[in-house]
Design brief:
It is a single chain. The protein contains 11 helices and 11 strands. It is of the alpha/beta class and 257 residues long. The chain has a single domain, classed as 2-enoyl-CoA Hydratase, Chain A, domain 1 (Alpha-Beta Complex), CATH 3.90.226.10.
């Protein structure tokens, strides 16, 4: 067991389990959380006793609710470059998202960048960026079209609707759905299948899938914002979105149309 502040890292039966441990905020992340996740993923990748990595969240309410809105309302947010999707792609070992509740915003695309996604029946998926004026962009957005096709990806990102685990299974964003009490058993079935495979072949497969994604991986959130709306963080639009969320009201974006 390795101690972290925002996550729990444990290895057992050839599996490294990385658990986001911020249940009071539905396992939402900050830059510190993402740094710990990156470190744990690297640790698991280099551990010869680990064959599969499972990423999940504490409790049964949320896998991850995305970025902590208190952080997103701060000045630090506009200069932070989210890159955890690169860590998931670059990891040479298979990563399973064990989705045990809400997977919203950054939590949703964190799950769909994992190699496999196994969800509890009560899990809820969706994006939140446009609702809080958080300018997600680049590969985190573009890869959803690889998985869902453009019409469904645009629906998910532009409308910010919420989707059930079964709905996401039908769309192809989820590999399997299980009752919450059976979630660990379902995850273990997939783990066991992966552990039967050649680790070198799995590594080659992941590298091959990455090759297909390379055209979109070069696009970063910062670059896209600078290209399309270089003064976004100065106009007050993002601050209105974050503040409205914290005040539990509908944001008024009419002045930025």
């Amino acid at each position: 067991m390795t101690e972290y502040k925002d996550i729990i890292y444990a290895v057992s039966d050839s599996v490294a389990t990385i658990t986001i441990n911020r249940p009071k905020v539905l396992n939402a992340f900050t830059p510190h959380t993402l740094g710990e996740l990156s470190d744990a993923l690297s640790k698991a990748a280099s551990d010869k006793s680990v064959g599969v990595i499972v990423l999940t969240g504490t409790g049964d309410r949320a896998f991850c609710a995305g970025g902590d809105v208190n952080w997103e309302a701060s000045d630090d947010f506009q200069i932070y470059e989210y890159e955890f999707h690169h860590d998931l792609i670059d990891c040479p070992k298979p990563v399973i998202a064990r989705v045990n509740g809400y997977a919203i915003g950054g939590g949703n695309h964190m799950a769909y960048f994992c190699d496999l996604t196994i969800a509890a029946e009560h899990a809820i998926f969706g994006q939140n960026g446009p609702r809080v004026a958080s300018p997600a962009a680049g590969a985190t957005v573009a890869h959803s079209a690889n998985l869902l096709g453009h019409k469904r990806a645009r629906e998910m990102w532009m409308t910010c609707r919420r989707y059930s685990a079964q709905h996401m299974l039908e769309w192809g964003l989820v590999n399997a759905v299980a009752p919450n009490e059976e979630l660990d058993n379902e995850v273990r079935k997939w783990v066991d299948d992966l552990l039967k495979a050649s680790p070198t072949c799995l590594k080659i497969l992941k590298a091959t899938f990455k090759k297909q994604m390379e055209p979109i991986l070069k696009y970063t959130q910062t670059a896209m914002v600078q290209e399309i709306a270089p003064n976004h963080f100065e106009t007050g639009e993002q601050q209105e979105g974050a503040q409205a969320f914290l005040e539990k009201r509908t944001p008024d974006f009419s002045r930025w149309r």
